[in-house]
Predict the 3D structure of the following.
Amino acid sequence: PHVFSTIPEIPADALFALKGRYTADTRSQKVDLGIGAYRDANGKPWVLPSVREAEKLIHEDPEYNHEYLAISGFAPFIGASAKVILGDESKAIEEQRVVSLQTLSGTGALHIAARFIKKFYTQSQTVYLSQPTWGNHFQVFETVGLKTATYKYWDDATKSLDIKGYLQDIESAEPGSIFVLHSCAHNPTGLDPTREQWVQILEAIKRKGHLPLFDSAYQGFASGDLKNDAWAVQRGVELLNETPILICQSFAKNVGMYGERIGAFHLVLPSAENKKAITSQLQAFTRSEISNPPSYGAKIVTKVLTVPALRAQWEQDLVTMSQRIYKQRVALRDALVALKTPGNWDHIVQQQGMFSFTGLTKAQVQRLETEHAVYLASSGRASVAGLNDHNVSYVAKSIDEAVR
Ligand code: PLP
């Protein structure tokens, strides 16, 4: 035996294990509704046209190189990314009270947020997550030693938002608790609060003096419109003007840069006071962990965000992706209705973003995988992006069989 021979094995990540089983499956009709990555009408990964153009520009640039970025990241990227989420007219940006840092995609931004809270937030060390939430949230916060708790969100009986339970949980949490809010296209349910509900949520958070953390992983995926999908964040920044607001931003999905790991952490402060010191502390996290963030993807995303023609193309790409997903929602719902599959399937159309929380049970999901080679998360979450005109009726028939 050696010094590591007693380390216990832990279960594989459920979603990546699902992907492994899908890849190993030799049945030709197999369908992947697992990991949240966009697929085109033929089920293939999609390099956005705006990204292809941006890559051309970068390669044509005689100054192109692979030098290290600064610790905070690529300055034009940081500025442009803040504007995407906070808005071109953001008062907070104008008043220079936003600290921004390039991160390893959304997960890296959450990790930096977690470390910052752990080290410097003295009011609370408990992070409230929606029930349910993206599974990795628990690990990201617990890994740095923070406690996690949940607030009510999804009402299984009505397949809608449990706004009453949500507001009660905000009320009963210790003042100053940390609340993680999915800014749009909630993962895994695809269910977002209405604007009226958002105002209720934000006002309750304000009343209790909680610390809000917006997780923005799908801006543009919910409605196809960047501004629309940033509404809750921007309303929050206006309304909660006496508390810092943490924003974790990913460009994995909306620019299709999944593997390039491009994201940002933004800390919106009530005033610019002590900004320099805060920046220095955040930079120290990055320096000790990754030294400095990746450059290639940041340069591409910057082109996409800031070159007017590419920006227009990107906004069109977002419409393309969100509309194709929406059409598949409708196609799946209609096919299930046509088959007279027991149950009501309207929630599939009402939900938005990448996912549908189908309401299928664990056993039904298992049956879909073993009998039909249709793969989705055991929670019943389906990545709607995996559907297309070639497989949607097959998936509907498979669900019909599994439900009966
Ligand atoms: N937050 C949520 C809610 C997510 O669904 C995801 C990805 O699935 C992320 C954050 C982070 O993703 P990434 O690190 O790939 O940007």
